[in-house]
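Pilot study result, target chain (65 residues):
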Amino acid sequence: MSAHRNREWPFTPANVRWVRKLWNAGRDTIEISRTTGLTEAQAYNLLAFIRDQRHAARQQGGARA
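Predicted structure:
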């Protein structure tokens, strides 16, 4: 099973919220990685995870999207 399914580092709820907040503030993956201490690849993977969640919410007609 993949790491994000188990909520293992770096896919913890706190990291997801932090990266989402920075991304919404207009930061790019390099700035996010420097701020959070994640690697750029981890920051990018978290952003992909966040986009997947939003896409799933839209597919189901949820208001979270």
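One observation from the pilot: Residues 19 and 32 are 7 Å apart (CA to CA). A full batch analysis is planned for the follow-on phase.
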